[in-house]
């Protein structure tokens, strides 16, 4: 049966599962999204069904880009109150820079990275935990390298870095902003099965700031090319126990 890309995207947002996983579940459920979501939940693939997205972990995503390399770091707290705390934000910024400067690729490498005051990220984290009295975890890191990088953080909750060849940082930031808003799955339509529409691919989408042109045409105008992008959403896939 023909399953629309929109339906797959919707199930993907609800469950946090992979694209092909969602498509398979929808095919099996004959396009019934409720049934597909339920089956996925039962089989343990649903990392974050609608409820989980409401009770999901708090925190922020921080970005640091310099010298052709960028880092996105997700650091979680138990409450949004702490996520807005200045000392928490300062720690996150310092941790992202330390991770970047150390060339960290894993959380283990982030934790041993040294901050500018000589303290490791892990010891700074422990000090902050004792000071704030809330569990704080450095959860995920994503990195990307490219000639041109532009980072965009939306409300501290969604972080994106677009990696370009050609163009400039401002263009890369605009592309990142678009990715934060529209959440494409891939850069180009070549990366998805033929029966998928262009709407899941970045290049085929109408540019958020000027819907009269596609992202692909915008890039052509600037003689630029998107090599890749990284994105983190706070609390993605965390299931919290409900009271």
From TrEMBL:
It comes from the Eukaryota. GO terms for molecular function: translation elongation factor activity. InterPro entries: EF-Ts_dimer_sf, Transl_elong_EFTs/EF1B, Transl_elong_EFTs/EF1B_dimer, Transl_elong_Ts_CS, UBA-like_sf. Gene3D superfamilies: DNA helicase RuvA subunit, C-terminal domain, Elongation factor Ts, dimerisation domain. Keywords: Elongation factor, Protein biosynthesis. Belongs to the EF-Ts family. Associates with the EF-Tu.GDP complex and induces the exchange of GDP to GTP. It remains bound to the aminoacyl-tRNA.EF-Tu.GTP complex up to the GTP hydrolysis stage on the ribosome. This is Elongation factor Ts. The lineage of its organism: Eukaryota, Metazoa, Spiralia, Lophotrochozoa, Mollusca.
């Amino acid at each position: 049966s023909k399953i629309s890309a929109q339906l797959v995207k919707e199930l993907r947002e609800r469950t946090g599962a992979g694209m092909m996983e969602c498509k398979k579940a929808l095919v099996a459920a004959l396009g019934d999204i409720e049934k597909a979501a339920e089956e996925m939940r039962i089989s343990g693939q649903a990392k974050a069904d609608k409820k989980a997205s409401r009770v999901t972990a708090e925190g922020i995503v921080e970005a640091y880009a310099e010298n052709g390399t960028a880092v996105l770091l997700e650091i979680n707290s138990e409450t949004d109150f702490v996520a807005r705390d200045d000392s928490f934000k300062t720690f996150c910024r310092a941790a992202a820079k330390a991770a970047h400067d150390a060339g960290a690729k894993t959380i283990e490498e982030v934790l041993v990275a040294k901050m500018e005051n000589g303290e490791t990220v892990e010891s700074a984290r422990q000090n902050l935990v004792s000071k704030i009295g809330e569990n704080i975890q450095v959860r995920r890191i994503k990195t990307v390298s490219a000639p041109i990088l532009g980072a965009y953080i939306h409300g501290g909750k969604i972080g994106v870095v677009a990696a370009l060849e050609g163009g400039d940082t401002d263009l890369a930031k605009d592309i990142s902003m678009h990715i934060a808003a529209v959440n494409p799955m891939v850069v180009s339509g070549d990366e998805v099965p033929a029966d998928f529409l262009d709407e899941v691919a970045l290049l085929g989408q109408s540019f958020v700031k000027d819907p009269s042109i596609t992202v692909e045409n915008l890039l052509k105008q600037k003689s630029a090319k998107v090599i890749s992008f990284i994105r983190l959403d706070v609390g993605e896939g965390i299931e919290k126990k409900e009271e």
